[in-house]
Write a structure and sequence with these properties.
alpha/beta, Rossmann fold, GMP Synthetase, Chain A, domain 3, seven-stranded mixed sheet, about 25% strand, binds adenosine monophosphate
Length: about 625
């Protein structure tokens, strides 16, 4: 079928379109109504239908493909590879679900999962889905403060953690972070379930709270746990993401709409069907990990490859050797991942038989053209840039080779995927802009299935954050974009104070709060500055309460951020200045700061309150980071 017809039908006749797509999954009870939209912008897909993500991802495949690999969890950190069939996955998930039930976790209860990219994280997620518990996976690279914020918002009945992660051969103990987060949180979980990998043999146990997974696993080795059928719009999981305030938003996903959207995306976008193999290099802690390491491939009856380790160890050919060994059809990674490989000898791209590999999808941040060309030439495969957000749960813009492969245009993530009625509108007037003009990318509601249903326990914040930017009710992506005359969209960066570091989204406010917790910091501004490897890196401009110890203060500020938010947020550079550039109304001129730091024109400065502040910034940049004023 032609892409245009498929997309047009999804917009013009959404109910008929999605009713057809809904047949790809198992319904315990068929929906009463395909779309309920009587309270915009809230919408209910497949209202009244009952289904279960775990059943669709696991049980449903047992008769036809029980002995097929469901999950291959490879760790080049521990040297372990686990090949898990659908039958074995079913067993593990039943055991895990029984363990959860024994800890009094039931339908609607939240479970925070703080684990590295290992098979048990997948078992835990599916076990929650099986019994109707709402999981919230927190990326293992996040530090204690981040974890505490998420705990307090989700109020989990249980936290599941591993003893440690490992990166580049270095063991990263998780338990001290869990304990610190529980100490900081106002609503710490009553129970912590520890999956002991044996990486941190001496981790401290909290009597009466901590329980050991291996012990309980043995006790429930033969358990069978019935699937809990959920109404299509009940929450399946929460995934926190950074916004413009210091408080992360709990993106809430439903059950039926998510399953249907993923099923559609697997064949039409990623071109992966039952029995085929998908390898996503993401971590289960991110949106890509949820959708394309866990639920998407499993709902499709495919094999999913999970990878813990660096892209360069034991050698820079590791990803391609995995593709060869497991006959990977579609691979999914990030531009940063490819830029890491680009620093290595290009001959690593040629050492393995990649005949099974059809596509490499890249997402999470802008794909720069030199990187796109380098990898296209290097592996000789179709490289597909796709654009989406944690909020959407699956691509908004992509090419759809499973349907009809349109030509790749370098620099663009392509065309709208089904159900996305996209416009590029003027920031002020809200009118649609002409082709090749810059505007804000918006989605006409109702949002398609799979997208977030609300912000956890905060409907008002959902409306305020996404639907209140224009006079008409539209979902703002908060990204600048340009659409060319062929309908290809180009993403030009965020309209808000969110930055993108190595494909991961960070709120500058969160980092500012962390920097400001240093006792000698009077005020701090954090911006994202262009970086060749990571896309952007956080850079701090700070004023001190007491001058004279700038270099020490700078290092301490960095440590503060690493400790509270994790290594990803660690500022690349800290500039100590006497004053920060602000408007007369006291608003920080972040964009001017960013322009100066990237050696660009700082733009219109007519609203600047104190011209000296800008001079200060220029001098600080000339002096170099970490130097005092
Ligand atoms: P996250 O929710 O962490 O996935 O971040 C979503 C944001 O990442 C988007 O709003 C964009 O700013 C950026 N992003 C994601 N994918 C792309 C892409 N293919 N091209 C450009 N920017 C992207």
């Amino acid at each position: 079928m032609r892409y245009e017809d498929f997309h047009r039908r999804s917009i013009e006749d959404p109910e008929a379109f999605w009713a057809e797509q809904a047949q790809a999954i198992h319904w315990h009870k068929t929906p009463d109504k395909i779309l309920e939209y009587d309270n915009p912008p809230f919408r209910r897909w497949f209202a009244g239908g009952e289904t279960n993500l775990c059943y669709n991802a696991v049980d449903r495949h047992l008769p036809a493909r029980g002995d097929q690999l469901a999950l291959v969890a490879i760790s080049t950190e521990t040297g372990l590879t686990r090949e898990i069939t659908y039958h074995q996955l079913h067993r593990e998930v039943n055991i895990f679900a029984a363990v959860l039930k024994s800890l009094d976790v039931g339908r609607g209860d939240r479970v925070v999962i703080y684990m590295p990219n290992i098979a048990e994280a997948v078992f835990a997620m599916l076990a929650c889905a099986r019994i109707g518990a709402v999981h919230s996976v927190v990326f293992g690279g996040f530090a204690a403060h981040n974890l505490a914020l998420r705990i307090d918002d989700a109020e989990p009945k249980l936290l599941i953690a591993a003893d440690a992660g490992s990166r580049g051969g270095k063991v990263i103990p998780y338990k001290p972070l869990v304990d610190a987060a529980c100490a900081e949180a106002s609503f710490p979980p009553p129970r912590v379930l520890m999956v002991d990998r044996g990486l941190d043999p001496d981790y401290a146990k909290v009597e009466g709270r901590d329980v050991d997974y291996a012990t309980l696993r043995e006790r429930h080795a033969d358990a069978q746990v019935d699937v809990t059928w959920l109404e299509s719009n009940e929450p399946s999981y929460l995934l926190y993401t950074s916004g413009t305030t210091g408080k992360p938003k709990g993106v809430q996903r439903d059950v039926g709409g998510y399953a249907v959207a993923l099923a559609l995306s697997m064949w039409s976008i990623y071109d992966v069907r039952a029995g085929q193999v998908m390898f996503s290099t993401s971590d289960v802690g991110w949106a890509v990990g949820h959708s394309y390491n866990v639920y998407g491939p499993l709902i499709a009856g495919a094999t999913s490859i999970l990878y813990e380790g660096l892209p360069t160890a034991p050698d820079p050919g590791i990803w391609w050797s995995i593709c060869e060994r497991y006959v990977v059809r579609t691979m999914f990674s990030s531009p940063t991942g490819i830029r890491v490989l680009k620093k290595q000898d290009a001959s690593w791209l040629k050492k393995h038989d990649l005949s099974s590999l059809q596509y490499l999808f890249l997402a999470g941040e802008p794909l720069d053209e030199p990187t796109a060309h380098w990898i296209t030439d290097g592996i000789g495969k179709t490289i597909i840039d796709n654009y989406w957000q944690t909020e959407t749960g699956w691509p908004v813009l992509a090419l759809m080779p499973g349907l009809e492969l349109k030509p790749v245009k370098f620099g663009s993530p392509g065309l709208p995927t089904p159900g996305y009625n996209l416009r590029v509108i003027d920031e002020v007037s809200g009118e649609e802009v002409a082709p090749n003009q810059k505007g804000v990318l918006v989605i006409e509601p109702p949002l398609p299935p799979g997208c977030m249903t609300t912000v956890w326990r905060d409907d008002a914040r959902f409306v305020r954050s996404y639907f209140s930017h224009f006079k008409q009710l539209v979902y703002s992506s908060l990204d600048w974009a340009i659409r060319d005359e062929d309908g290809y969209t180009f993403i030009l960066g965020r309209t808000d104070d969110v930055i993108n570091v190595a494909g991961h989204r960070l709120g500058t406010r969160e980092i500012e709060e962390s920097v400001s917790s240093h006792p000698n910091v009077a005020e701090a501004a954090v911006i994202g500055v262009r970086d060749e490897l990571k896309g952007q890196v956080p850079v701090v401009f700070a004023t001190l309460k007491q001058a004279g110890i700038a270099a020490t203060a700078a290092e301490e500020m960095r440590d503060c951020v690493s400790r509270q938010l994790g290594a990803l947020a660690r500022p690349a550079r800290v500039y100590v200045v006497a004053a920060l550039p602000k408007t007369r109304s006291g608003k920080l001129l972040r964009r001017s700061l960013q322009a100066l730091a990237e050696q660009r024109d700082p733009g219109d400065l007519s609203t600047l309150d104190d011209p000296n502040a800008l001079e200060e910034v220029k001098q600080a940049l000339a002096r170099g980071a970490d130097a005092g004023g």
